[in-house]
């Protein structure tokens, strides 16, 4: 991932076990750039990322949500409404 992200200040990557990996960025600008440009995947697996507060236990973070942009083609005009958008958001 470090080769893909090209951090200015470097990065430390630690395997925490239980399918969790800790990425420690040495510069805040590198961390912000990676977090803002989600979604990331590795070997066709989605990476769920979360900023950890100092002193918090990383094993307690609920990594269960991911944001996606979805583009729907061919939706009839009658279905292009805020109600339809809201129902798709909950899907």
Number of domains: 1
Shape, principal axes of CA atoms = elongated
* Count of DSSP H/I helices: 3
Sequence of strands across the biggest β-sheet = 1-2
Q: How would a crystallographer describe the biggest sheet?
A: 2 strands, antiparallel
Which bin fits the share of residues in helices?
Answer: 10-25%
In total, the number of strands is 4
- Low-pLDDT stretches are none
Structural class from helices and strands?
A: alpha+beta
Beta-strand percentage?
15-25%
**Mean of all residue-level pLDDT scores:** 86
The helix/strand series, from N terminus to C terminus, equals HEEHEEH
List keywords for this structure.
91 residues, two-stranded antiparallel sheet, DUF4283, DUF4283 domain-containing protein, 23% helix, 3 helices, At4g02000-like, alpha+beta
Concise description?
By secondary structure, the protein is an alpha+beta fold.
What would your notes on this structure say?
Pfam families: DUF4283. This is DUF4283 domain-containing protein. InterPro entries: At4g02000-like, DUF4283. This protein has one domain (2-89). It has three helices and four strands. The chain has helices at 2-5, 28-36, 82-89; strands at residues 11-17, 20-25, 40-42, 45-47. The strands form two sheets. It has a two-stranded antiparallel sheet. The protein has a two-stranded antiparallel sheet with strand order 3-4. The protein starts with a helix and ends with a helix.
């Amino acid at each position: 991932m470090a080769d893909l992200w090209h951090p200015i200040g470097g990065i430390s990557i630690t395997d925490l076990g239980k399918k969790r990996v800790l990425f420690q960025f040495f510069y805040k600008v590198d961390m912000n750039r990676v977090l803002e440009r989600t979604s990331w995947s590795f070997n066709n697996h989605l990476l769920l990322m979360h900023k950890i507060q100092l002193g918090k236990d990383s094993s307690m973070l609920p990594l269960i949500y991911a944001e996606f942009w979805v583009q729907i083609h061919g939706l009839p005009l009658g279905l292009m409404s805020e109600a339809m958008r809201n129902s798709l958001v909950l899907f």
